[in-house]
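Predicting structure from sequence has reshaped protein science. With that in mind, we have picked out one protein's residues alongside their backbone shape tokens:
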Amino acid sequence: MKRDRRAKIVATLGPASSSATMIEQLFLAGADVFRLNFSHGTHQDHQQRYQIIRDVEKKWNRPIGIMLDLQGPKLRVGQFVNSAVTLQQGQKFKLDLKTDLGSAERVNFPHADILAALKLGTDLLLDDGKIRLKVQELGKNEVTTTVVIGGKLSDRKGVNIPSLVLPLSALTKKDREDLSFGLDLGVDWVALSFVQRPEDVIEAAQIINGRAGIIVKIEKPSAVDRLDELVKLGQAVMVARGDLGVEMPPESIPAVQKKIIATCRRLGKPVIVATQMLESMIQAPAPTRAEASDVATAVYDGADAVMLSAESASGSYPTEAVAMMNRIIMHTESDPLYRRIMDAQHFELEPTASDAITAAAAQVAHTISAAAIVTYTASGSTTLRAARERPEVPIICLPSDIRTSRRLSLLWGTHCVYHIEADTFGQVIEKASKIALQEGFAKPGQKLVVTAGVPFGTPGSTNTLRIAQV
């Protein structure tokens, strides 16, 4: 199951991709991590998908990462007398706490704290930004707005408020229940939605308590404003371009995406680019040229992973979408320009033995034309630092814990095995040579660069580099 690429693929499961046959096909087509979107489906649905993934993992003896994506708070208007109204530009329109069905003059907005936090001039975006309102008057339990951009507004449409940090936790009651269920199930990653401030990540981390890695979804302008703090707090980051594209001008998203990827690269955190990557493949068997370029751009920028959402969850061509993404990544990474870009991106090392050893491993591998870098790791920190260097050769990760293997399946350039047990460095080298040979990374006589922390069992203590011959 050797992948001939460095960037990873995250595939979302849903109605079109829940059978054992389809999930295995997605894995064989190139999916490295599966996303369980808790905005949809029941706990039973997700439990069945989880078990199928673990069965596929066992069958192919290849660790597979599983991501739980929390829904987060959803701000929505209420319902209307005739299910919808048409708002005209320039008219007045109220949002209030009244529970009556709405009309062309007003609608229920069941979020008292949000109404109280609104200010004069605040922009409200409804239905994914199709309708724009501006707050003109503040009243008790209501606000009066002017319609800036009108259109049809129907029941329960979403509301975005990009200019304010809202008085809401990133975790709703539903999220807490979903999180408890997912952690008991054994998910490897938790994607945290509606992150506005560092406190949101800290709150989630206290609940998760190391049982899964936290993926901080950057989908709000306030999160972009505090990007460094949020990246440092999470174990990975997602460029969630769907909500970002609603709350920020579309023309700003490419630059924001590059900024987020560069920040994650600098701080050594895995980063996923998500949303609408191969959107047309929901209905068509091939993407547009613009979509293929979009995926390639994320790869050129150095993203660890690219993600499929509706394309694999509810589309008509889920397997084809994964296979297409796989081909785009492989073709991009075979471009000599890609390697030059990776080589040009050197980030300042931390003054630690671990950083010195992992940076040296990439240089030594280049100098001696090694077949691969091998990291023996407990927590995964050794492998994370190795991937940050974006070496020319694959990184074979030999973890002492299966949970580490599954989590690192998201990481650029890594090929994880289940787990190995070793008491001496000699055993590590012996097993590394055997795995490199069996998995097709090396031939007899080729060299490996092996890193580890001695004595074993101390996370983040990489202090040894050795050259081994297969």
The first helix runs from residue 20 to 29. The domain at 353-469 is CATH 3.40.1380.20 (Pyruvate Kinase; Chain: A, domain 1). The chain has a mean pLDDT of 95. The two ends are 20 Å apart (CA to CA).
